[in-house]
Specification:
The protein is mainly beta and 425 residues long. The protein folds into three domains: 29-212, S-adenosyl-L-methionine-dependent methyltransferases (Single Sheet); 215-331, no CATH class; 339-425, no CATH class. Helix content is 11%, strand content 30%. The protein has five helices and 27 strands. β26 and β27 form a beta hairpin. The chain is globular. The relative contact order is 0.12. InterPro entries: DUF4384 (IPR025493). It comes from Deinococcus aluminii. This is DUF4384 domain-containing protein. Residues 190-246 are annotated as: Disordered.
C-alpha cells in the first residue's frame, strides 16, 4: 500500500540455494554459493557486507522486524548493482534505486544503505532461512530492463525474475557484452530467524519492508513556459502522446507517457512529435507545479524520457547558447533517464535531478539549476551526490586555471593534475 507520505517494498531478503547450473550466454559461472562468478581474474573488486558482520564473510542472524544496514566498496570506479534474494527465491533490487542519483561508486569510497539521513529504512522480513546479498560491479552501466523495471513514484524497482538460478542466468546475459575482466561479484550471507539457531517453519508470506518517506514535492511555483525554440508544429486538433504530423506514432513516447502517468505529470500534448537534432521531441502543457514538459527520444534508443519545469528551462537555455536550440546541448546530450525528486538532505535542501547522456542537471529552489559533467560528475555521484557531505551544487561546473571545478553546499571539487580532488568546507 502506498500513500503520498510513505511507500512499502518487500525486502523478503535473499536466496533459495538451487543446484548449480551452467550459463549458456557469456562467461559467467553460476554457483549455488556465490550465485554468479566471473571465471577470469579481474583487477576490479567489490565488497558487500551487513552491519552485524563487517567482514562480509560471516553468517549473522537477524530477527524479523530488525533493521539491517548494507555496506559496499569497490577498488576502482564502477557501477554497482545490489540484489537481495530470500529463502523462497524472491528477489529485490536495492541499488540502484530512486533515492540515489546514480549507481556509480567511486573507488575506495564506502557506501552505506540506508545512509545517514536517508528517507527510508531496510527492515528484515523473512521468511526464516538462509539469505544472500549479491553485489555486481561493472566498468560500464548495464541494461537490466529485462530483470527489473522502475515505476514512476516508486522508490525501488520491480524485479521480474524469481529464484537464484534465474537471476544468475539473466545476469550472465547482461554482462556478456562486457570485456572478460569488466565485471566482478561478491556475496554476503545472513540468516533470518532466532539467534539460538531455531529457524522455525519456513513458511512463505512473511515479508519485510523498505519504508520510504519521499522528500519535498517538485517546486511549488509554476515555471515559466519553455522557450519557443525548437518549435514543434502546433496541432489544430487534440493529439495523442507520440503522435506525428503524418498520423504515425513514436512508440517510445507512448510508452514513456504511460510509464510516467502522463496525465498526472505531463498533461495534454501541445505539439506533435517532430524531429529535433538526431531524434524527436514533443511538448506538453504540464500539470500544476511540474511546469511545462517535453518528451525526448534520441534515435537508436528504445526509450523516451521527460524533462520538466526548471530543468527544461535550463536545458533549452543551454541548447540556445550552444546551437540556437536546433538540437540538444552537447554538454548534456539527450535525456537518458527519468527525472527524480531528491529528498531533503542534511543541509535541509531538496530538489530535482535530471540525467542525460553526457551529464546531469540539479535544480533547487534555494540555489537554482546547474549542470555537471565528466569526471567531476562521476566523482560527485560516487560520493553519494546531493545526499553526501557535499550537498547540492551551488553553481555550474566551471574552469579554474584551465581545469574543471565545482562548488557545493558542503565543499568543492577541483581537478588537480588530471585528478579530481575533494575539499570539505
Amino acid at each position: 500500500m502506498r500513500t503520498n507520505l510513505k511507500g512499502m517494498l518487500s525486502i523478503t531478503a535473499l536466496l533459495g540455494l538451487s543446484a548449480a547450473g551452467v550459463a549458456s550466454a557469456g562467461p559467467a559461472k553460476i554457483t549455488a554459493q556465490s550465485i554468479i562468478v566471473n571465471p577470469v581474474e579481474t583487477k576490479l573488486g567489490v565488497q558487500v557486507w551487513v552491519n552485524k558482520d563487517a567482514s562480509g564473510r560471516g553468517n549473522p542472524v537477524y530477527r524479523k522486524g530488525e533493521n539491517i544496514t548494507i555496506g559496499l566498496k569497490t577498488n576502482q570506479d564502477a557501477y554497482v548493482y545490489l540484489f537481495n534474494v530470500n529463502a523462497n527465491g524472491q528477489i529485490d533490487l536495492f541499488f540502484p534505486n530512486s533515492y540515489e542519483e546514480s549507481n556509480f561508486v567511486q573507488a575506495g569510497v564506502t557506501r552505506i544503505f540506508p545512509a545517514d539521513g536517508a528517507k527510508y529504512t531496510l527492515t528484515v522480513g523473512g521468511p526464516n532461512g538462509q539469505d544472500k546479498l549479491l553485489a555486481l560491479a561493472s566498468t560500464k552501466q548495464l541494461n537490466i530492463d529485462d530483470i527489473a523495471r522502475f515505476v514512476q513514484g516508486e522508490g525501488f524497482a520491480r524485479v521480474k525474475v524469481q529464484g537464484q538460478e534465474n537471476l544468475a542466468r539473466a545476469l550472465s546475459i547482461v554482462v556478456n557484452p562486457l570485456p572478460e575482466d569488466g565485471w566482478v561479484t561478491d556475496v554476503a550471507t545472513f540468516r533470518v530467524g532466532n539467534p539460538d539457531g531455531n529457524q522455525g517453519s519456513n513458511q512463505g508470506g512473511a515479508t519485510g519492508t523498505v519504508s520510504v518517506t519521499p522528500g519535498q514535492p517538485a517546486p511549488s511555483q509554476p515555471v515559466q513556459p519553455a522557450p519557443q525554440q525548437p518549435a514543434p508544429a502546433q496541432p489544430v486538433t487534440t493529439i495523442q502522446p507520440g503522435e506525428k504530423q503524418n498520423g504515425d506514432f513514436d512508440q517510445a513516447m507512448v510508452q514513456a507517457y504511460d510509464r510516467l502517468k502522463g496525465s498526472e505529470s505531463l498533461g495534454e500534448a501541445s505539439s506533435y512529435a517532430v524531429p529535433w537534432g538526431d531524434g524527436l521531441w514533443q511538448k506538453f502543457q504540464g500539470v500544476a507545479a511540474y511546469g511545462d514538459a517535453v518528451l525526448l527520444h534520441a534515435n537508436g534508443s528504445s526509450r523516451a524520457y521527460a524533462v520538466h519545469g526548471r530543468l527544461l528551462e535550463r536545458y533549452l537555455a543551454l541548447a540556445r547558447a550552444e546551437n540556437g536550440a536546433t538540437r540538444p546541448p552537447n554538454r548534456l546530450g539527450w535525456a537518458a533517464g527519468d527525472e527524480k525528486v531528491i529528498p531533503r538532505n542534511s543541509f535541509g535542501t531538496s530538489g530535482l535531478y535530471g540525467f542525460f547522456q553526457n551529464g546531469a542537471l540539479y535544480g533547487t529552489e534555494k540555489y537554482g539549476t546547474f549542470w555537471l559533467t565528466g569526471p567531476v560528475l562521476k566523482t560527485y555521484q560516487g560520493l553519494g551526490g546531493s545526499g553526501s557531505f557535499l550537498g547540492f551544487p551551488t553553481r555550474d561546473q566551471y574552469l579554474l586555471n584551465g581545469a574543471w571545478a565545482a562548488d557545493f553546499e558542503g565543499g568543492t571539487l577541483r581537478t588537480v593534475n588530471g585528478v579530481v580532488k575533494v575539499y570539505r568546507k
